[in-house]
Amino acid sequence: MSEVESFFKSAFSVDNVIFGFDGGDLKILLIQRGAAPYKGKWALPGDLVYPNEDLDTAAERVLEQLTGLRDVYLEQVRAFGAVDRHPLGRVITIAYFSLIKISDYTVTPASFAQSAMWHSVNKVGDLAFDHKEILDSCLKRLKRKVRMAPIGFELLPPKFTLTELQQLYESILAPPKGIDKRNFRKKILSTNLLNDLNQVQEGVSHRPAKLYEFDKDKYEQLVAEGYSFDI
Amino acid sequence: MSEVESFFKSAFSVDNVIFGFDGGDLKILLIQRGAAPYKGKWALPGDLVYPNEDLDTAAERVLEQLTGLRDVYLEQVRAFGAVDRHPLGRVITIAYFSLIKISDYTVTPASFAQSAMWHSVNKVGDLAFDHKEILDSCLKRLKRKVRMAPIGFELLPPKFTLTELQQLYESILAPPKGIDKRNFRKKILSTNLLNDLNQVQEGVSHRPAKLYEFDKDKYEQLVAEGYSFDI
DNA sequence: AGGGTTTGGTGTAGAAAAAACAATAAGTGC
DNA sequence: GCACTTATTGTTTTTTCTACACCAAACCCT
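^ Those are the sequences you sent over. The predicted structure of the assembly is below.
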């Protein structure tokens, strides 16, 4: 048995769907594979899990190596383990998604940085392995979760406008007829989780919008009292 | 041991939270461990995944070996992979839950049958490994899923009464004040997914209730048209 | 046969939430 | 000051949710 064959006798990995938002479409960070299998193909960033490493830790490590970022929102979605999903052996993978502020992502420290690129989720073609299926699964989870927990803010800068927030929700949920502006503002403000900063946008060539921040402390206090976010 | 070799020392398993309902509490099927580690402790039925076996297939196999049942509702929840979760080595496990009609489960064919027993989910104490955590996770998933998809019927016999159905929902969701009978019937019948069989219960010493069946074909047709179950 | 017991079955009114919908305000650029 | 762009705000209608109580149908017992 060759070294490669034996290495892949049985292993597990993590793959990370890294979401970002820049005001337009929802984006994910993909890397272009530099080695076989699937050389040259776009793929989710991932790695084998080290023997003494928790799954969450491995996912955090993959994220940090690629983006330099720590302490970001990360959630496990599920395992993918079809027998033939990896051409070189039996590798099951645990899928994660994470949410980062795209502006925090600058040219990256990791070696695969040069081949990493943001892609609109709507324009992602075939990916290596079963990564398209993993992406679909993570996107579906995000769509559900973003309505049940205030995680959308993880994709926005600390100060944001209500229009930006609405565009974020529209880019994730993609409702057929868009979201009604008045109803959206009513609902999001009624949570009382946004602080009006009494500041406005600068540098825009039209009426500047007010800036808000998400009040995480208040949210956690409400949760402790039984509150459940729902938008 | 080299780093490469140590990747071999890992294994993966599936564990299955098997739910059943008998009219009273919601139940799960546990087995009593006959060997170390955790000998004598109650645990979720599970097994290592064979090298040429898909994860779903492994979960189905575990279920069939224990209950003799095939073609039952089965859903992956997520992976549990803490480094120290298994005392004998690195074993990550993929958690599944399944829903069976408790009346279909008779004395079982598998060798561990003698030590398998139904336990009320509310009265489960400590379990082997991290199985309590897995159970909690699966129960949480079931609570959400049973409202978003018509999977509750998987726990009931083909013909059931509305009271039985309501008791099922109450046993899963455990709402503080119970569920209002009239509102529940209104909502569930308004889906038009229950066929009135024009039959009544027999052998009860009070007014017999009408029997219904779930119309799976109709449901699948509606889903194809964009329908989304919500109760 | 009749009354007691148990569970089955049904409708309506008020409250709350969701959806539909358009005019004015505050900036910039010319 | 006028044209242009985006921001901000409230009301009405519709739908959904919630709360709530009485009669019906079977069995049991005497």
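Chain A touches chain B at residues 3, 6-7, 9-12, 48-49, 51-55, 76-79, 81-83, 90, 92, 94 (CB under 8 Å). The beta strands of chain A are 11-21, 26-32, 42-43, 46-48, 73-80, 91-99, 116-120, 194-200, 210-214.

Shout if you want it in another format.
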